[in-house]
Amino acid sequence: MVPGPAATGPPGALGVPTEQGRLARLGLGSTSTLYDVARVAGVSTATVSRVVHGHDRVRPSTRQRVLEVIEALGYVPDGAAQSLSRQRKEVVGLAAVENRSPESVVEQTILLFVDEVLRGVEASVGKIGWSLLISFLQGGDSAYKRLQSMSGKVDGLLIAEGIVGSAELERLAARLPIALVAGSTDEPSVDVVDADNRAGTRALVGHLVEQHGRTRLFYVAGPSEAPDARVRCSAFAEALAEYQEAALAGSFEGRFSEFSGQLAARDILARPRRELPDAVVCGNDQMAIGVMRELMASGLRIPADVAVVGFDDIYVGTLLAPPLTTVRQPMRLLGERACSILLDRIADPSLPHRVELLPTELVVRESCGCRSGGPAPSSGPGDGS
pTM (2 decimals)? Predict the structure, then answer.
């Protein structure tokens, strides 16, 4: 990818910053036209149009050069004109994080969370007979390049769990409709569908403190680059601060994997006995499973010595002994609603920006200290989300 006009760095495919200096001398900027792109790239306007509209009759090297010039010029095709002129591919793309954990684990979150999201997306595209293109990506510049490539093969993109930043999302959204699944609700350029992570996390804290008298809570967070992990972490801190009798007993940043939950438990066990928490709140179920297994292997009893709770409500949590108390988020519905919103925008790019929060619910089982399980409302102290 060649940076935008304001970027600096070593020369790339277009000779950055030499090329950007030339563009500035030509007086080209955010108002650049299709004709400007064709002139700088040294191709016909028909070729630029084919690249913009995702047609296949363009050499890969030519397509890449045109895309780089579009990036350097900041050229934004007219969305309404594209929707009228281009032929529909009848394909929706879904991009998700390949693996946030450096460890090799069989039961990765990506296989559980995205699998459920995928079922919801398939339900939406299946109703209209469209196809689905799926790609698992690593984060960073390589992810953006892959998304650029995907953008020419689909009518719209679903992006899960914060793979790229706001600037990259804005550039992608200028080319085709984008919807985020479990993304940051603060993104101004794309539609977003997310679970109400804040209400769910507050419900967990309220239940542990009010129903079970737990006052020393340890938090196992997800990766800071994941939007849902950031919201759950901040919601935990807000909820805990509302109970004068409760305090933070420590924290650990995990990777949404079971192994990182085990590492968090080892961090807990390394502390003096008097500093051990009486409850561990985890940013997802897989980390909670790792915490439970490691604590029980050390001889601690759950929930008699320490309560453990998670988030997501994956099926394996019901098979533990004791079964895991958690927050159920509607993973399949996340995919279904995000895809539905994306299809609406493909049909009408002029629709207003949309953010949709889906409700969560507290699912009470035995790992928190309750004797019988069942769903409970996901409301915590002062919850108004």
Answer: 0.73
